């Protein structure tokens, strides 16, 4: 594709993405911005404060009562810090940071559009579609990516947008299938794991494909694998030094980039790189040279870090698991879409599944001619779809990958010599996908459980309230339902902390709050509240079963409780702050 056509293609994708972003602002409520973005903002604000330290992940405003150690990477924080520091030279620091929260997501949207355009062009190949048809196809493709595009709205500062960019960059590196592509694969894979472990299945799949290509001596594979291995090794070292520091590199964090994952990343990339240099024998010899040390590395890592064998969420206690984690829809399978009547997502999923299924004959054809790049990117899209079936938190990834094959499908369907076969494939794929997904309507009945006190505690009953009473109190630890913790933190003066927020590492604090507000046993309640100075609850018109949640029922109804001394608010507000008299607490 010439430079003019490439520029036009990028312009279409970027303009369509901007229209999707603007449409998200139309109703004044952003689709994706949530509590993750709020905590990221607090983390960056604390980092920029006098108390913040680059290598210290402690967030003292969450005290469970133990301090909260954030698992989130400084790699995501870095651009916001740099932009805010630069803008602070010409505007107040607070405004500079808010501007950074708007600027960087839009810059990432441009990068997203560039990656999508490059990938679509390479996958599309030499199709002879008219220019206007190609542009319309690219616009339609981008519309199908709307859920992924909405990860780049201003204010969306969570790490998922970075993970999408890493996945697309990895796919582009695979499409290039040269040394530069290998470097891109290695850098994107390392960055993805530094940011978070959600990208681990995609990195594992991509490198497994590289290993197979190397063993089978696919054309160009050795150069790609060597470059990818070297890039991952170097990026892992640089990332560990830059974002963790010495103590962080040696720490064991089973849910974040740390010693176990550094060992695996350095080990596997080192094994791959050495095999590329030293092993040039028969395929079975190459396979053994890779498999034996890799299995040994896995065994040694598991033996050295046994706690991580339980998975990244082992920290969640049974009470928090039942009352919080199990109620999060994105942690369940696609059947939760049916139970929750999320029909628009089901329709989108059916369309993406049908597109990938229809393209399967082309994937088989590519496999026969040993064209690894096309096949591996297709495999990444299928993997993303399968992961979403099992756990819907992954939905942003197939939405970013699967639509890339829509232009491919359209080009195939418009080819006169192939029209007979493509039509059959499309009809069969659409019929099968819709039959399966429609059939599930009859198998999975809608299920909307009645809201209970746990749901009330998880919602922000304090939104829009006046928190000025906090300015009259001595800073201390506040015990509050996890749903209102964020509102308190954004309003409280320096020195206050909350017991819990809805994040897995805060589950010790959530457990204490469930015991304090739900337990009917006084001793359990006193033990749960022992480390805290205050209790905070907002009045609510919702009726709460006093037998199920004695303390929460009383306080949310505006009543007092023995041992809790009400702090008088300077202004009328439903926000209630109580000082704990531990000796009199019942």
From TrEMBL:
Keywords, in A-Z order: Membrane, Transmembrane, Transmembrane helix
Top-level division of the source organism's lineage: Bacteria
Keyword Ligase part of the UniProt annotation: no
Keyword Methyltransferase: no
Transmembrane regions: 101-124, 136-153, 183-216, 223-246, 258-279, 291-316, 343-364, 371-389, 395-413, 425-447
Name of the protein in its database record: AcrB/AcrD/AcrF family protein
Lineage: Bacteria, Pseudomonadati, Pseudomonadota, Alphaproteobacteria, Hyphomicrobiales
């Amino acid at each position: 594709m010439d430079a003019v056509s490439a520029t036009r293609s990028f312009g279409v994708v970027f303009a369509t993405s901007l229209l999707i972003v603007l449409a998200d602002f139309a109703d004044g409520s952003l689709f994706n911005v949530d509590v993750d973005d709020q905590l990221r903002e607090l983390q960056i604000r604390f980092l920029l404060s006098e108390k913040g330290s680059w290598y210290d992940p402690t967030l003292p405003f969450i005290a469970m009562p133990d301090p909260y150690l954030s698992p989130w990477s400084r790699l995501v924080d870095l651009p916001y810090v740099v932009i805010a520091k630069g803008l602070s030279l010409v505007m107040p620091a607070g405004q500079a940071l808010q501007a950074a929260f708007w600027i960087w997501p839009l810059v990432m949207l441009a990068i997203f559009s560039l990656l999508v355009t490059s990938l679509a062009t390479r996958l599309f190949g030499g199709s002879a579609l008219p220019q206007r048809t190609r542009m319309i196809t690219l616009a339609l493709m981008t519309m199908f990516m709307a859920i992924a595009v909405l990860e780049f709205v201003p204010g969306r500062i969570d790490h998922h947008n970075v993970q999408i960019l890493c996945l697309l960059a990895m796919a582009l590196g695979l499409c290039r299938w040269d040394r530069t592509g290998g470097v891109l694969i290695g850098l994107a894979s390392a960055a993805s794991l530094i940011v978070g472990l959600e990208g681990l299945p995609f990195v594992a799949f991509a490198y497994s494909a590289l290993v197979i290509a190397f063993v089978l001596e696919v054309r160009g594979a050795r150069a790609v694998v060597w470059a990818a291995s070297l890039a991952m090794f170097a990026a892992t070292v640089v990332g560990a030094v830059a974002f963790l520091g010495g103590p962080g590199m040696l720490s064991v964090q089973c849910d974040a980039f740390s010693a176990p994952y550094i060992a695996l990343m350095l080990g596997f990339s080192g094994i791959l790189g050495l095999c590329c240099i030293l092993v040039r024998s028969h395929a079975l010899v190459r396979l053994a040279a890779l498999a034996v040390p890799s299995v040994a590395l896995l065994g040694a890592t598991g033996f050295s870090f046994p706690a991580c064998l339980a998975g990244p969420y082992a920290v969640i206690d049974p009470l928090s698991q039942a009352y919080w984690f199990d109620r999060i829809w994105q942690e369940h399978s696609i059947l939760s879409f049916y139970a929750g009547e999320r029909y628009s997502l089901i329709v989108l999923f059916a369309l993406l599944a049908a597109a990938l299924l229809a393209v399967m004959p082309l994937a088989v054809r590519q496999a026969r001619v040993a064209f690894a790049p096309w096949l591996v990117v297709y495999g990444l899209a299928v993997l993303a779809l399968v992961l979403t079936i099992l756990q819907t938190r992954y939905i942003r990834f197939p939405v970013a990958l699967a639509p890339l094959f829509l232009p491919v499908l359209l080009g195939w369907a418009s080819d006169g010599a192939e029209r007979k076969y493509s039509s059959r494939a499309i009809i069969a794929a659409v019929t099968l996908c819709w039959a399966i997904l429609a059939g599930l309507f009859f198998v999975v009945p809608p299920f909307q459980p009645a809201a209970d006190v746990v749901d009330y505690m998880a919602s922000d009953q304090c939104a829009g309230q006046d928190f000025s009473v906090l300015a009259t109190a001595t800073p201390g630890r506040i015990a509050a339902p996890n749903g209102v913790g964020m509102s308190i933190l954004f309003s409280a003066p320096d020195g206050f902390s909350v017991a819990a927020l809805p994040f897995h590492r805060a589950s010790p604090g959530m457990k204490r709050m469930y015991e304090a507000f739900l337990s009917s046993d006084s001793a359990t309640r006193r033990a749960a509240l022992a480390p805290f100075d205050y209790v905070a609850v907002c009045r609510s018109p919702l009726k709460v079963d006093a037998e199920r949640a004695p303390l929460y029922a009383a306080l949310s109804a505006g009543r007092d409780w023995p041992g809790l001394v009400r702090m008088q608010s300077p202004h009328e507000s439903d926000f209630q702050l109580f000082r704990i008299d531990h000796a009199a607490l019942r």
